[in-house]
């Protein structure tokens, strides 16, 4: 039986590399990209990328996009209710598996597994447990291009936000920062590569949006605005 897969897609490098791996498997069919968007902001959750750029990614890869809208102030109870309804629609449409681009965070992996355990959909983690420096090398060597969209200033200098991720970017990272940003040090937006029929064009704003730490009230997360061209 052919596996029909919904891809949990952030628009960033990890989910893109995992998707690349999945597409190489001939017994699997990618049904859709499955992405959360924050209402009022019209941007992807966590990565802070404009919804229109997300749509361009899906179009460039010629994969249907399913957007799940969540409120800007979202409790875990509300989030799980919204996701439960969205996943049930996947089940109704014949999706058999959901793919995630997680690498090392066991609590996140277990949360996803528990979320799907109440459904017939099975989770897939194509890059789980692999060395992040090897994954980053693979991603770049395949020809993908990506830019950092958000930096956690508790872990990384905000000067890294808005930079294209290449060999120099990796060399400049402090030794205690994961090369894939697996601990939330930075997030990314992929704009070109083997899966893309055409590159996505945008400009990087000079302005930075800063969001506070919910617990301390201090400035913490620095976002750059990518403007479609």
Question: How would you characterize this protein structure?
Answer:
29% of the residues lie in helices and 29% in strands. It is an alpha/beta fold and 229 residues long. The protein folds into two domains: 3-124, Rossmann fold, CATH 3.40.50.620; 132-228, putative n-type atp pyrophosphatase, domain 2. The strands form two sheets. Strands 1, 2, 3, 4, 5 and 6 form a six-stranded mixed beta sheet that branches. A four-stranded antiparallel beta sheet has the order 8-7-10-9, covered by helices on one side. It is globular and about 50 Å long. The protein starts with a strand and ends with a strand. The mean pLDDT is 94.
Task: Note the topology.
Elements: E1 3-8, H1 13-23, E2 28-38, E3 43-44, H2 51-61, E4 65-70, H3 76-92, E5 97-99, H4 106-117, E6 122-124, H5 132-141, E7 145-152, H6 167-172, E8 186-192, E9 202-212, E10 219-228
Parallel strand pairs: 1-2, 1-5, 2-4, 5-6
Antiparallel strand pairs: 2-3, 7-8, 7-10, 9-10
Question: How is this structure best summarized?
Answer:
Its EC number is 6.3.1.14. The chain folds into two domains: 3-124, Rossmann fold; 132-228, Alpha-Beta Complex (putative n-type atp pyrophosphatase, domain 2).
């Amino acid at each position: 039986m052919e596996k029909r897969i919904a891809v949990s897609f952030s628009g960033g490098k990890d989910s893109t590399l995992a998707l690349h791996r999945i597409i190489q498997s001939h017994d699997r069919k990618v049904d859709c990209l499955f992405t959360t968007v924050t209402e009022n902001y019209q941007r992807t959750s966590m990565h802070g990328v404009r919804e229109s750029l997300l749509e361009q990614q899906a179009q460039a890869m010629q994969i249907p996009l399913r957007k799940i809208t969540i409120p800007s102030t979202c409790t875990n109870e509300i989030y799980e209710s919204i996701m439960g309804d969205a996943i049930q629609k996947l089940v109704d449409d014949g999706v058999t598996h959901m793919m995630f681009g997680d690498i090392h965070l066991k609590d996140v992996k277990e949360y996803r597994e528990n979320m799907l355990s109440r459904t017939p959909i099975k989770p897939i983690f194509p890059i789980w447990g692999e060395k992040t420096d090897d994954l980053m090398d693979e991603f770049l060597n395949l020809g993908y291009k990506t830019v950092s969209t958000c930096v956690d200033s508790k872990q990384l200098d905000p000067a890294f936000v808005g930079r294209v991720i290449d060999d120099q970017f990796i060399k400049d990272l402090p030794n205690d920062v994961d090369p894939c940003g697996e601990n939330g040090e930075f997030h990314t937006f992929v704009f070109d590569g083997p899966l893309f029929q055409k590159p996505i064009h945008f400009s990087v704003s000079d302005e930075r949006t800063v969001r506070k730490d919910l617990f301390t009230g201090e400035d913490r997360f620095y976002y750059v605005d990518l403007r479609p061209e």
